[in-house]
Amino acid sequence: MSHDPGPAADPWSAYRAGLAEGRLLYQRCTACKKAQFYPRVLCAHCGEYAPEWQESAGAGVVYATSAIHERGAEPRNVVLVDLDEGFRMMSRVVGVPADSVAIGAPVRARVVEEAGEPVVVFEGSGSA
Q1: pTM for the complete prediction?
Q2: Residue in 57, 58, 62 with CA at minimum distance from that of residue 127
Q3: How far apart are alpha carbons 49 and 56 in whole angstroms?
Q4: What is the pLDDT tens value at each position of the chain, 128 positions in all?
Q5: Neighbours of 15 (CB within 10 A)
Q6: Where are the alpha helices (DSSP H) in the chain?
Q7: Which long-range contacts (CB under 8 A, 24 or more apart) does 35-44 make?
Q8: Which run of H or E residues covers position 26?
């Protein structure tokens, strides 16, 4: 499913506009067919001026995870997630203790609002 949310000259704004609508957008190059994230004007793989917007279904698996421990605060996690469409993004898993996020765990993206801005977080979607 292709979607063109706006001018290619400002891919970050186009990505943010998708988030504001509750959608996780990424780009796929029409020349080499590879997915990329974060959004760019040129394909990060082949250099062609050919990325097009697509909407992710949001399903993926945790590629890497770290639990961040700060004095006086609950631990939080930072994860790299491999999405089924072929791109990787950094975020966090919500609803799971930071030390319990497992590599290989299936997750699903959700757009939430934090400090008045839409952001992508992941939730567990079953057992690994």
Answers
A1: 0.86
A2: 62
A3: 21
A4: 444 544 456 899 999 999 999 999 999 999 999 999 999 999 999 999 989 999 999 999 999 999 999 999 999 999 999 999 999 999 999 999 999 999 999 999 999 999 999 999 999 976 44
A5: 21
A6: 11-20
A7: 35/83, 35/85, 35/86, 35/87, 36/87, 37/83, 37/87, 37/88, 37/89, 38/12, 38/89, 39/11, 39/12, 39/14, 39/15, 40/11, 41/8, 41/9, 41/11
A8: strand 25-29
